[in-house]
Write a structure and sequence with these properties.
Structural class: mainly alpha
Number of domains: 1
Largest sheet: 2 strands, antiparallel
Radius of gyration: 14 Å
Strand order of the largest sheet: 1-2
Strand content: 5-15%
Order of helices and strands: HEEH
Length: 45
């Protein structure tokens, strides 16, 4: 795990809908990266 995500996202106590915050934050990052890939594919970059 990169140091940035370990220090900023590694929160054990808070949870979103019963899921640890780290998993929710990583899921958000992955969704954003996939959205960028889809956007680039549609633009034909």
């Amino acid at each position: 795990m990169p140091p940035v995500s370990h220090t900023l996202l590694n929160r054990v106590e808070p949870s979103v809908f019963g899921v640890p915050f780290l998993y929710v934050a990583l899921f958000g990052v992955y969704v954003a990266l996939i959205a960028v890939l889809i956007w680039a594919y549609r633009r034909g970059v």
